[in-house]
Amino acid sequence: MNLFRVLAKIFLIYLAYKVVVDFIIPTFRSVGQLKGQMKNMQERMDAQSRDRSTGSSSSQKQSAPENVGEYIEFEEVKNPD
């Protein structure tokens, strides 16, 4: 009976170790990564908001096309078949 208790305790310790290593630690790591990504996204959104509110000239230059050329209208010619 004493051997059974020792084996049961070893098995329970092993299960607890597997739960901690395979579930709890990866969960904490992924939560930390998600928080970092959310922080970066929020910072980028704040920067874009500041650029829009101040009317940044760099964003206006990017959106305005350069001298592309002259627009020529044309009509499609149908074949009289």
SSE inventory with pairings:
Layout (H helix, E strand, L loop, with lengths): L1 H53 L2 H7 L18
Describe this structure in words.
It contains two helices and no strands. With 81 residues, it is an all-alpha fold. It has a domain at 26-53. It is elongated, with a radius of gyration of 33 Å.
Gyration radius from CA atoms, angstroms: 33 Å
The outline comes out as: elongated
What pattern of helices and strands is seen along the backbone? Answer: HH
Number of strands: 0
Largest sheet: none
Number of helices: 2
- Which structural category fits the helices and strands? mainly alpha
Task: Give the low-confidence spans.
Answer: none
What helical percentage do the residues reach?
over 70%
Average pLDDT figure: 85
From the N-terminal CA to the C-terminal CA, the straight-line distance is 101 Å
Strand content: under 5%
Summed up:
This protein is an all-alpha fold and 81 residues long. 74% of the residues lie in helices and 0% in strands. It has a domain at 26-53.
